[in-house]
Amino acid sequence: MKKILTLFSLLLFHYSAIAQSFNYGSITQEDINFDKNKIDSNANAVVLKEFGTARLQIDDATGSLVLMFDYHVKIKIFNKDGFEQANVIIPTYKDDIKQEFVQEIKATTYNYINGNLQESLMDKKAIFTENRSKYNSLTKFTLPNIKEGSIIEYSYHIQSPLIFNFRQWEFQSNIPKVISEYVAFIPGNYNYNVLLRGFYKLSDQKSEINKECLRINGVNIDCSKMTYIMKNVPAFIEEDYMTAASNFKSAMYFELSDVQMLNGSKQNITKEWKNVDNELVSERRLGSQMKRKDLFKDLMPTILTNTTDDLSKAKAVYNYIRKQIKWNNYYGKFSEESVKTALDTRSGNVADINLSLIAALSAANLDAEAVILSTRDNGTVNKLYPVISEFNYLVAKVNIGDKSYLLDATEPLITFGLLPLRCINDQGRVINLKKPSYWIDLKAAQRSVTSYMLTGKLTADGKIRGLLTTTTSGYAAFNKRREIKKYNSIDEYVEKLDESLPKLSIKKHEISKIDSVDLALIESYEVEFAVHDGTNKEQLFLNPFFINRISKNPFNLNERTYPVDLGASSDERIIINITLPEKYTLQDKPKDMAMALPQAGGRYLLQSSVTDNVLSLSQILQFNKAIYTSEEYLYLKEFYSKIIQNQKTDLVLKSTN
Description:
The chain is mainly β. The strands form eight sheets. The protein has an eight-stranded mixed sheet with strand order 6-5-9-3-2-11-14-13, with no helix packed on it. The N and C termini lie far apart (65 Å).
């Protein structure tokens, strides 16, 4: 849920008038005795108080405008699971021109022992910096002397040249908060779009005006102080099947819209897509690389050998690029160097590879476009106005007849027209060299399909021997192929698979069509597993859910305020046929089930029987939607719960002889 608060023409006042944070080191008896039942009985730790403030000011050293951010927090730790709150990580941005600096770090642990409050001040030597990537650094430190019942407190200051995205503020984190307060001081000539994301509303919001907060080139600028408060904030608990947590956490976001210049003119920062289109088409690292079809003209006769139509041409070009250039595991919407460099070095980032694909498709006289997007772990993008910094990935789009195909040539094991799940995230923006850009839905082109078939025989020594055939297609095949390729050989993969199946032994194997990614992947295994030790042949106990058994419910919250996003719909089928050596009757079994999710969202079917001395079991698990709303969450939770409970029941076979 997103709530736009207002489009401010904001003003700011001098930092001497800034709202006061709580005093550092002021630990009260109320803090020491705080009862977590007041906010969350399951909490491992609780934020007692959190305060942050941000303001713009002139940097004396450079004379440029910078963003100053101060943060102060006090946390109560209840048990060992809460100790992780003492490990603090502060991310900062850097590039060849701009860099954020973390300064004035102060951290203290308080323990109340025998009626006395003992302070442990963190040594500055405990602070270190880690370069996470070319553009990100992590400042890390761990508070000392942590015990159950400790209170920790720390504060720091960040100086940042990044004033476009005024410092965001997350009210929600992985632990609950008693009170979280953020104060933004924004010069009156700076106009920011302010956005509250998330499920929870503000407890309080204030706006105050003051005069002459900032002085630029001898001109005094009036200012406004914006205060945002949220109280009794629940913890944000991450579960399986979700996109970036930033999409759903309650948080304040600021994006610079325009600046009123001192000479009276207005500089628009937030642009329209028509302006951004022109910039991207002429951008050396994007539009210019899309035009490099000259690099492929001489190669086309060879690449297009044996192609008969546009679709086969597109597939041939796609296969050529994904084999020619190896992905260096870096994302990007812009080429790092150029398409030519990527071809020469046979290596490149996401944009290098897919811009090469677009240029090559164009050289084959196919209609190709670029699609910029934000990956699932990067969050969704703003649709109201273009914010290019929110996009972190680029794929190709080829239009053939009345159909279009989205392509990512970074993954050599994925079939034509299927994007990696990391790209299936809301919408992307299509960039055309000659036409206006437009939005496109990023949906899975295929579902994840898996089928298991076991045909076997129960022998006199109490073992079932048979053939297990697994067939996968769509995302299931892609994931399985990628898993197999991690190993040096198929034999090594099968050896590890055998080790992971303690009740089942693989005797022989055959895996076909590993590299034929447009076809289903087929795995055949001769397997053996014991049902009894020969001492009691009159009664056999067999749990039939030894193939991909569901043992854990992925949904355990009482309420989930964000959707369940599987990425793609799925279909899994299991068929087991086991010939029994003597006449057996079915004495007990998991009950046959036929369950359906509301609005044809999915189904689970289970049937088992013994007929003509053959034990048969059939199981179907389908999810017909890629995304389920938070309102459908409890249905999914109950759906899984019933399946898990039923799969605990054994088949009991009794001999009639």
